[in-house]
Design a protein that fits this description.
Structural class: mainly alpha
Radius of gyration: 16 Å
Largest sheet: none
Strand content: under 5%
Distance between the termini: 38 Å
Shape: globular
């Protein structure tokens, strides 16, 4: 059984989450750049979901199927030498986005992963700012 991710649904869910946060009175992260904050915030959450999906898609461990949270926790253990107890304490997406900041910066979204983000950012006029996060980005 393979692990599949609905890129469009995951992108929309991340975007909806951050739009709702901003509408509910959450302080904007960037006072000087208010337009498009929901898109910027959603990108981190979306890249995290894609990162976890990539780990889950590894079929070599035939003895176990990881869910997204366990995949992220396992990464913290293997790459950052956390203990199992420490990793299990992390539950919020925002915390994983913070803890895996460098990995998410380095990760480039594949064509399939980037497609919904490209659609949205092109439509909203933010394409150039987001292209650095895509494989095969156009100059």
């Amino acid at each position: 059984m393979s692990f599949e991710i609905d890129h469009y649904a995951e992108w929309v869910a991340a975007l909806d989450k951050h739009e709702a946060e901003l509408k509910s009175g959450t302080a904007p992260r960037w006072e000087d750049i208010r337009a498009g904050q929901d898109l910027r915030m959603a990108l981190g959450t979306y890249k995290l979901k894609c990162f976890a999906a990539r780990i889950c898609q590894n079929k070599a461990a035939i003895w176990a199927r990881l869910d997204k949270l366990d995949a992220l926790r396992l990464h913290l253990i293997n790459k950052h030498h956390w203990t199992l107890a420490e990793a299990r304490e992390v539950e919020k997406e925002e915390d994983f986005v913070f803890l895996l900041h460098e990995e998410l910066l380095q990760m480039k979204l594949t064509e399939a992963e980037a497609y919904p983000v490209r659609q949205w950012t092109e439509q909203k006029g933010y394409r150039g700012e987001f292209e650095q996060h895509f494989e095969n980005s156009a100059p």
